[in-house]
Amino acid sequence: MGKFNRTHMCGELNEGNIGQQITVYGWVQKSRDLGSLKFIDLRDRTGIVQAVINKDATEDLFNEAAKVRGEFVLEISGEVAKRGGAVNTKISTGSIEIIVSNMQIISKAETPPIYIEDDAKESEALRLKYRYLDLRKPSMQKIFFTRHKAAKVVRDYLDEKGFIEVETPILTKTTPEGARDYLVPSRVQPGNFFALPQSPQLFKQILMVSGFDKYFQIVKCFRDEDLRADRQPEFTQIDMELSFVDADDVMKVNEGLLQKLFKEILGIELQLPFNRLTYKEAMERYGSDKPDTRFGLELKNIGDIVANAEFKVFADTIANKGLIKAINAEGIGAKISRKEIDSLGEYVKVYKAKGLAWINVTEEGIKSPIAKFLKEEEMNAIVERMQAKVGDIIFIVADAPNVTDDALGQLRLEVGRRFNLIDASKYNFLWVTEFPLLEYDAEEDRYVAKHHPFTSPMDEDIPLLDTNPAEARAKAYDVVLNGYEIGGGSIRIHNQQLQEKMFGLLGFSSEEAWAKFGFLLEAFKYGTPPHGGLAFGLDRIIMLLTGTDNIKDVVAFPKTQTASCLMTNAPSPADAKQLEELKIATKN
User: Fold this and answer.
1) What are phi and psi of 97, to 5 degrees?
2) Which domains occur in the chain, in start order?
3) Could you say which of 338, 355, 442, 459 has the lowest number of CB atoms within 10 Å?
4) What DSSP element (H or E) covers 164?
5) Cβ atoms of 249 and 242 closer than 8 Å
6) What angle do CA 557, 165, 172 make, to 5 degrees?
7) What is the mean pLDDT of residues 216-224?
8) What is the pLDDT of residue 229?
9) Cα–Cα distance for residue pair 177/197, rounded to 1 Å
10) How far is the C-alpha of 222 from the C-alpha of 176, rounded, in Å?
11) pTM, entire model
């Protein structure tokens, strides 16, 4: 075969090309034999065009066309003409066709194990095993064109704002930053290991010490965690760090970035600034630090109303310093069945709640299994606080504070989904601020960082580190979109002594801190600017921009929930020679 002479992409042809001699390349979407005419729909990444081979053409060409099957790769040359039959309004080239004068079969294809069609319903396992075929689907390719464009928008915006893109190491030191590291053994230093970075956190802070002032990177990160629908073991961050800034500065830059991104990709004009909620407010009102604010059903505390109730569940909760909260599902009481109520009761048990109480406000009066345990004035006070009216149903959870918030917050989302209360056309952005600096881990019997060990406490809370660390708030901020945390960051500690104090609170001795983080502490000796930053989850943003609910759709070659690649069968055993070179022995 000679050189390739492509003149056009398939989906770019239109009536303006009528009369032109063109050459296109692509895959056969389908072929049809009508006796004296053969039709081939040829597909490339831009779309589909119809090619027509007339029996009056050369016999060799007509016979060659008879061999064509789905997914063959072809070269087709010919003249663009107005379509002879009805216009196909489903494709951009539907008013024209190619009258073929020459065709070459470049590559034959066996019958594919999956259909190359957007509405095909193969299992996810089959799609991942034959990912190279799945990626041929127009809907999948559209996702990756969107991802490409989004990355370009990000780079252009940050470049305009004076940021410089700097690459940081993939092979680095293992440091305890929250998640489990992926380890890479060193051949030249047997017994020692590199770690794949959970994020470029320490390097970007050191770049601030180096005077770069504004850094960013679109970067791969790795965390050896149990997977879920919106998480992968390797993922991509839009990572940035800025010097001489406070939290408002970082948030302003990133609001502008998101505004430009959504304008360029979706044509949506975001209104700035975004709303803000403190962590405490978010938990009190939504039971979540990443609330979906597209609908109501806010949580309200009713503990004071039932503090002296005879209902044992409520009394025990109050006695054990628990929390009693409720949501009002407006209008749902009139159409929900008892079976559905019971299923919601089972749903909250998934989130460790012991049960679900409910009060249905009907035309005939209040219906509730707990009515017999509460005084009339207590029941009426609950209905009044929840602003419930006829047709509404109130759901109540009474449990430990974290269980109540989590279970009722999740129930709120489930009710919203089941009863179509969520406006899918909305994009509600929100900043959540003033997170706790620390959380107590009962299993490890120590404090752990809510975000990471390098987050600065709020200035006024620094004295609490010596007296009541659990009450200290962080200069941390997450950006939330429709119930997804799409990014998070903080102002960092830039003082060596404060950073050492933080390590001490996390249970590290001075020796351990210097052994694990000494390169950072050493850097802080030589003039460190105040700095802060943020990292977006690019995969999650693309998921929301493209309207899919599966993060695997936006990753070219994703892993399963067991962190396996079905296409390559990774991870796989290493051979004996490799293990010997690395001085590694495996156990069965």
Assistant:
1) -155, 165
2) 10-107 (2.40.50.140), 141-277+430-555 (3.30.930.10), 295-422 (3.30.1360.30)
3) 442
4) strand 164-165
5) yes
6) 65
7) 96
8) 65
9) 10
10) 13
11) 0.93
